[in-house]
Amino acid sequence: MPAPHTSSINSQDPDDPLTLAMRPSASETESVRRVRLQREADEKSVSDRIDEELRQERERLKRRKLDVKLLLLGQAESGKSTLQKQFQLLYSPQTLEKERASWRTVVYFNVVRSLKHILDTLQSWNDLAEEYQSSGGSSDQGYSSSGSNAIAGPSTSRHRYPPVASSSAHRATESISKNGYDSSTTSSSSVGKSDNPSYQIANLRRRLSPLVAMDTQLADLLSGGVTVAGSGRGGVFVRSGWQARAIENSSSLTKMGRWGKRATGKDPEAQSPINAADEMMHNVQRMLELSNDDIETLWAHPIVKKMIADRKLKLDEWSEFFLNGISAVSRSDYVPTVDDILRARIQTMGVVEHTFNVDLSGQNILWRLYDVGGARGQRHTWIPYFDDVHAIIFVAPISAFDQYLEEDARTNRIDDSLQLFTTICSNPLLKNVHLVLFLNKTDILQSKLASGLRIGKYITSFGNRANNYDTAVQYFRAHFLQVHRKNNQNKRVLYSHLTSVVDTKTTQSIIGNVRDAIFRGYLKSAALV
């Protein structure tokens, strides 16, 4: 009886369909054979290259699993980006050095935006005073009930001046340098008005208008033309990589050594404008230099100081920092210092990744720090993508008890921080993530309390507690700890710190403690201890 027939799976079987399909034609010529063999060699080379790329990708993924991943969260203007800069300064100072030139644009923008806000606020109160007087109010009524000097009086015109067109910046600079600061050009009719506060402010507004008009162009230079609706008066949003674009667009900055020391030698390319962005930066610098005295006069003006004291003019801490140091910022050889970079304000859009090599007990571990945009509209998108992070550093500005969200004027910023922290603590995707809490801006909290601001006026639950720093810190910390306790089924530890992240020495000491705590948790999660 013959054996049953079975199909062979041997690819060398001459009857195998694949072998038959790939077999060269019996009539194949030598030239065709060479072409075929070359094609097969090329195809094998491509296949081998793909295999190698896949192998390398597997290795990268294996190594990436050993990376420490940190998520930096908090509301807008909480100090997240400043904390990121402190990490960068501690673990990768050379990258901050490379980016230093880009921060000059940010500082210029911060100064111009601050001046614009001051002048706009003064104009608003001027208009209110005029409306009051035109309705029959007393001619000596000032901008506040305290009876201080009025911004506007019946004998003084409004002095409203249209902004200078941005395209005329260069001509405006030339005009300022030739005429704007020559006291001899003052007309005789204005001599009697020179002591009038209203006239002084109007004159400063006129003289500073070319500089203030650069606000939009500086914003476009930083953001690449991207605008975000409802971002508020301080809102210019930048994407990842903005520093490289700013450096490219500011190549005329004189080359410097580390942290502001001028390098020796001359480089013509580095000192002459080569494109429109360079020319604009040159014009802004020149206008700042020529406007230095007027900026100092405006900043020191009694009306401005009075309005700040009466909280009719509210400025961010970075505004006061740069206006106090305007003589350094306006110099032609200005290069941002470390403190300037830490305090420079710009809002990030989306998620920005920063990497640092951190030495831990002789091991070189790559840390990935993810800075997530703090605007309300950006928060809901990040959670599904970061369930594998090892720790979350949450930054809450406890100095913001008297502030409200720009996106929602009814929501106190402390309450918003607590809501965001509750979302993080209660999210099941983040239940195994270690938590670090930075109660930030303690220096500003102390300053506000020393000036007489009462927490109970803005946060009713504070009640009649003593309005001092220790009581306030204890109160705010207790509320965040309570949120953590209510959402801590996994019994994870919350590390909390009182911080002022612009204080480099103290912050870097805290970062060292946080690093050790996170690394211990990292080792446990990796089952290495």
From TrEMBL:
Residues 133-148, 177-196 have a biased composition (Low complexity). Pfam families: G-alpha (PF00503). Residues 1-12, 165-176 have a biased composition (Polar residues). Keywords: GTP-binding, Magnesium, Metal-binding, Nucleotide-binding, Transducer. Mg(2+) binds at residue 348. It comes from the Eukaryota. One of its GO terms (molecular function) is G protein-coupled receptor binding. One of its GO terms (cellular component) is heterotrimeric G-protein complex. This is Guanine nucleotide-binding protein. It comes from Pterulicium gracile. The lineage of its organism: Eukaryota, Fungi, Dikarya, Basidiomycota, Agaricomycotina.
